[in-house]
């Protein structure tokens, strides 16, 4: 299931952003026993580099990433740690 979720996250971001690089890490194993992990959803970290973030403040960048996740935030993802950068910032 973990590899499938990573693939879904990757596909969602690739479909809406012009990416210079993307790293998706499943950190669910670090949260075993955590109350939020009991429902089976995972904890993930993404490092997204895209010039689609040019001129956007951090909150707007994160909103773009969350929008790309859509319903995955309620079905598959419990927590998402986001690093959203432009190519010049990476």
Automatic annotation (TrEMBL):
GO biological process, one term: iron-sulfur cluster assembly
Superkingdom of origin organism: Bacteria
InterPro entries: BolA (IPR002634), BolA-like_sf (IPR036065)
Bilayer-crossing regions: none
Matching Pfam families: BolA
PANTHER family xref list: BOLA-LIKE PROTEIN 1, PTHR46230
Family: Belongs to the BolA/IbaG family.
UniProt-recorded name of the protein: BolA family transcriptional regulator
Species for this entry: Wenzhouxiangella limi
